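## Example pair
The file below holds two records. Each record gives the amino-acid sequence first, followed by its structure token line.
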Amino acid sequence: MATELGADGWLLISAALVLFMTPGLAFFYGGMDRSRNVLNMLMMNFWCLLIIPIVWVVIGYSIAYGDTAGSLFGGFDAAFLGNLNLSSQSGADTLMLVAFLGMFAVITPALISGAVADRMKFAAWAVFAPVWMLLVFAPVFKWVYGGWLGVRGSLDFAGGTAIHVNAGIAALVAVLILGKRKGWPGEGHPPHSMPLVMIGTGILWFGWFGFNAGSALSANGVAVQAFMNTFLAAAAAGLAWAIVERIKDGHFTNLGAASGIVAGLVAITPACGYVSSMSSIFIGLAAGVICCYAVHIKFRAGFDDALDVVGVHFVGGLVGSLMIGLFADADYFGAEHMNGLFYGGGLELLAEQALANGVTIVYSGIVTAVILLAIKATIGLRVTEEVEATGLDVAEHAETAYNTGDAFMERAGF
């Protein structure tokens, strides 16, 4: 009984930690954004905290975690949390799982908000976030965890494919459909508040222990290993990014360290329960270097990913997921899964990882495009040039983040 209560307590604490990550993400993105749009960015993230939990318990959980093993769709048996008997331990366990996974459902669409900063109508975002969660996140989650991709043998401990690659490719599609911000890339768009960015980074790192170690669903040895791997990979990636910047540009920057930490957290997420501590350091180092260079691809390719969601979350998630195919060690954990290439498993697991991510990229990309084009054709996606120039905070929310003087307030209509 004590062991059972300990496991339940850890899962509930982990759920709260993952919930705390969404405000952390809001601070992280908000600090990177322009001062005239910071409240808009905060509200985009907090909107996910408002609407996604409702949609999740009504139908999202049923689609994402139905009882039909190996299927494409979870069905509707658990819609409205039907057939949930809380008088039994199994009913209570199910409700805890609904709550825990619901926190993941909240933060996944929120990740996309950083890519579309400074130019997306809030009304469009308000529709997009819950629809995307239902039509993209929930089905992909089902395929990866208990659906056909998981049955085939692909591994994703805490959401590299289902969350970061999924949201990352959606972010890329969104910025291609929305178009570039006015003046990009000629005008600089530096973070308006590095203290907010660093606070957000710290909250994300803290919450990520629940994200990854909580995904063991019990306070056991796997949770401890996932916890340590999360710590080490983030540190290694932040260090690698900082060193690369020092070599390239001559400076250690706070933004580089923060971005590297988040890249390491993203990369270790799919692998944290399948690799050793030393392997997590290698994964973190690789993510720090690769993502540092990946964020600059947007300038060459010409897509305006405002806050580097593609370079950090899509690329980082892909790096971590594929490296499971190299570093997974079944003997080390005593788990029933294939070894990675470096542990005698050949290329089979790497091939399954590539297939799972390829399917996610294609499905998420196509459905995201359909959702956004439908919104564009109805209520519209993008704010006017005037609103973009003066800021979304006043135009979309009738608020300002900072009191910058009477002249500004008069222009804002206050």
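Second record, same layout:
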Amino acid sequence: MKIDAVITWVDGNDPAHRERMKAYGSKADFSRDDVAGSTRYASVGEIFWCVASINRFAPFVNKIYIITDGQDPRLDVFLDKNFPEGHIPVEIVDHRTVFRGYERFLPVFNSLAIESVMWRIPGLSEHFLYFNDDIMLAAPVTPGDFFTEDGGIVCYADRYSVFFTDLTRALKTIVHRGQRQVTFKGMLRNSVRAAGGGGYFLHYGHSPKALLKSFFEDFFASREDVLLGNIGHRFRSPDQFCPEEVQILCLYRSGRCEVRSLGDRLFFFQMKDRPGYPEKKLRALEKGNYVFCCFNSLDKTGGQVRERIVSWVCRRLDIEPA
């Protein structure tokens, strides 16, 4: 089975990128981390860890595609130094390539819109793994960890009730004085509607997703209005859905998605202004035996916290810092 990997990445520190954003966004957009706050685009080297982890722990991957907006993470020197005996080929794919035919929606600064067309990468294999750039593998994996013998997908997730999620969203809207929030669970819940309705969704967490290109081809071919509705937002909107969740739900209902509990496979770090939080999470990181890691909004950390994370990652992946 041929398996590729797709990573979406942006360097929010790039002055040209910041200027493009300013031309299309508002102060209100940039003041909200759930929409277009700077932390959504910050890059402190996580892309190097993501790519290195695939090389180290998933050498069966055929090719790594990195979707960017006219940018290049310049991985060559890093990969040659850390994998001198050879590494998985990397190809940079510009937004214009995956948005071909829909260029009127560019530029876009919205991961949900990009994920809706990532399957349009020329040459992408039928079976592929999708990573956000802040997600990495932390232990060896096999194709069987992501795809079934008959070509279906494996999803690490837990079921969540649509009813209780809707109730939570309503309460949050009241707390924020009528302002609808863009939340991960909210986007997963929206995916239920796009997938034809139902009383539950599968909360897959911040881990790699196994996907089939042909599903997206068939699904959006008959529902272009759904595709247009999701790629028509330059910045994240509470009306959007997660295209990966739509596929997972549809394949699960048709018996082509095997659901396994995420359990203790995932380590998720997101900096919180809470006494003792970083130390508690770092102790768990250093003691745990995780398969997937996500270091979310690492730009908000500093000093010893970030140093300990970088040190752990370099030891785990057996690499030198980028």
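Notes on the second record: The longest strand covers residues 3-8. The CA atoms of residues 119 and 216 lie 7 Å apart.
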